[in-house]
Predict the 3D structure of the following.
Amino acid sequence: MRDVFNFSAGPAVLPEEVLRQAADEMLDWHGSGQSVMEMSHRGKEYMGIHAQAEADLRELLAVPDGYKTLFLQGGATLQFAMIPMNLLAGRTGADYVNTGEWSKKAIKEAGRLCKVNVAASSADRNFSYVPAFSDWKLDPAAAYVHVCMNETIGGVEFDGIPDTGDVPLVADVSSNFLSRPLDVSRFGIVYGGAQKNIGPAGMAIVIIRDDLIGQAGEHVPAILDYKAHAEADSMLNTPPTYGVYVAGLVFQWLKRQGGLAGIEKRNIEKSAMLYDYLDSGDFYRNPVEKRNRSRMNVPFTLADSALDEAFLAGAKKAGLLQLKGHRSVGGMRASIYNAMPLEGVQRLIAYMRDFEKTRA
Ligand SMILES: *Cc1c(COP(=O)(O)O)cnc(C)c1O
């Protein structure tokens, strides 16, 4: 056992069991004499790994028929561009909901390609909540509605799925992917980078409804066209093979945790424990409206920011790593993804308690 707990927002902690298995299989995968990294992506060994990962992902999320699951490169950021390139289909604009830093990045990128209607925003209260769905000013002619289901930096998570009628709902779930069950049938596209909750950096997962594939204009290069990727089963070019393999190990680990219902229970328990502690005094503070507090990313500030450096130095000594908040907001942030054990959260709270005692 490693005696540290890693609270990084991403790339982030992976289950120790998975890392050990990957290490055991590093030089010789299942008697093949090859590392997964060395395999041809067209060979039967890797094709098997790829197909199993896809099947396990579909099983975990209960992805319905009529949706493709793609393993792509370019991270979630490439999807910020691919989504308008593929979904506009002759329309001029799309609706975006602005709940924080990642929403803003998606909006900015879409703005290069189409007219963006910001249908709702929580800028008025420093992005500390998700605007009530009934207040959204949706455009019925929009090509799609884009949301970020979990703002990794602000620690703001949707507590439901909006109803956008016939307009496809497109969701960035990078930082709460597979942390809870999700009704995929409510979405046109669900996408995210792998490095927050699923595996190594270098891969994005896109789950897309079949009717949204094949709408890209003639000018869109094949590598940016969902249709080309779907027709090639995510092997239009060399896929991120090692990333798919490790993600596949994580999917199997999740199945052993009781699937998404099982992991959700643990995520509720871990996050409730930390928020209850933050709310129990005045020394630490989380600004997010209770119903939208993220189960994955928990930002908090100290009553006196002059103590930040001492807090971080002491945490590191106690084996509690990467608690520094995002440079845009300061303070602290504890990311407690699926792979963070309950013990990590308990150790963090114990440290915070001690720190408060000596400094308050
Ligand atoms: C990290 C993150 C991204 C960007 O992911 P990349 O893989 O670095 O492109 C986008 N959206 C959210 C919500 C994120 O947390």
In short: The chain has nine helices and 14 strands.
